[in-house]
Amino acid sequence: MKEIFQYGIDALTVGKTIAIASGNMKAVLNDSAIKKIQRSQQDVDTIVKKNKTVYGINTGFGILSNTRISDIDAATLQYKILQSHSVGVGDPVPAEIAKIMLITKVHALAKGFSGVKLETLERIIWHIENDIIPVVPEKGSVGASGDLAPLAHLFLPLIGLGEVLYQNAKYQAQDVLNKFSLKPIELVPKEGLALINGTQFILSYAVKCVRRMHNCLEAADIIGAMSLEALTGTKAPFDERLHELRPFSGNKLVAQRLRILLKNSDIMQSHVDCGRVQDPYSLRCMPQVHGASRNAWSHLKELTETELNAVTDNPIIFSDNDTISGGNFHGQPLALPLDYCCFAAAEIGNISDRRCYLLLEGKWGLPMLLMNDVGLNSGFMIPQYTTAALVTENKTLCFPASADSIPTSLGQEDHVSMGSISGRKLHKVLDNLEFILAIELMSACQAIEFRRPFKSSEILEAAHGYVRRFVSFAEEDRIFSEDINKVRNIIHDFSFVEKVNEFANEKNLYLNQGYENAFCL
Question: What's this model's pTM, rounded to 2 decimal places?
């Protein structure tokens, strides 16, 4: 039986959000949440009946906040805000992102401070449960009055407008409503504004980034350890005593993981008296570099989970006599850590590329370019061109979107976060990082085979064996892009990290033990 999550009541986490989106957890509105939703909607009704002037209920929006709207037009205003703000452009966001937007919006509105009808929330949940996902263009949000444009597109189907994805095809929303004999929702005062005010576009990208980046960080430690083995590096720089002298949590975790990953390695034992004094930084400083990126990730996870349980609407309805028009919709709290993680993810790619280069140099007993017959063959020289290109592309994506602000709404919204761009940009960096790590993994697996008959640790041999299910040892040149894509796929679908973790756990070697709260999902 599926675990039940209660919208507006339980604490939402990144893991639970992904579970709801994937159908592995059922999310419901319980009686307590329903009562809060209904009370808040009644408060809005009372405000309208008392003829009180409250932003967004009976006024225009943004610079038009001082324009009074008649009671007759108050409901029409809610339709118009969805129509007028649907100005997104570009490709549609991935369906999973749009679905997470629906989930996180329901959770925020179900807390009972937004004045929406129960019927409206039930219709959004119907979209989630039936995988009828609105088509949302990726560009158009400045991340300040919430993600206005993408959220407007997200909720057009509620009023029978816009497009939806259903059973892997695109339809007009009204056609799908007709198929299910459903009528468009009749919005009441405040509802349109409540639907489009919020950070759910930025937040949904943050949720996905937290999961994807965590997977890349886990993979980077494993792959880095394999490269170190192939290059006959030393594990001395991962000594626990060293890292207690500079006790950053991320550094300590990575050092612990590397110690466990390299435990009882025959390759490591084979060169204990080789006379090498120090390894290059890309090997020796993995705890410091990977660890710093871990710390950045941990900060993003913490802030994302705060936002997952926040109310980012405006105005906030505490009661019919107590409303506050504030700035909870401003995306800056997520924009900054998303940009920070752009740098952190890019740096993992940077150090990975350096290890790729080291593997090609023909030093420490490895053949140049990781092939015996080079000249006729180029070996693994050209895949490193790709890592170099991707690393540089990531550098160009590291300009922080949150460092910019362009006034909108004729100056009423004079400082914006641009956090939507930060989130989309981080996804591009992670796309590139997965390919960089794939090329290092492919190269490290090739190099380790030149160390035979010595074997690495049990965990790393299991990692090597899993890769070899998809890509074989290269005796000569071939179309390496095919190999790269295959290895990237097992990183992208999380299976590489999952298989290594499963094997380690079976051996009672728990790579993240003691750090689960801060560094696990």
Answer: 0.96
